[in-house]
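Section 5.1 Outputs to date
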Amino acid sequence: MAYLEITLRVDPANRPAAASVYEKYKQPFLDSIAGATSKELLIREEDVQVLHGFQSVADANAYLDSPLFTKDVVGELAPLLQADPDVRVYDTV
């Protein structure tokens, strides 16, 4: 099992728009990305995180190179971000 954690700095006024991007692409992510097992939106006062579950680290890294991520998700989120996202991949033991 592996996790991809993407932390986004989004102005509170833009959070509803960011959440709509999450909702729009959650099911396509689960249906079409190899090894995808889960996707959760975590909201904190200082930032927003998207936690993705995968069967392996290789699956997580492949998603980061997929058109769904690079074109669709990043394309819609980019105008809403205050800083570059913090992207981390974790392997479980």
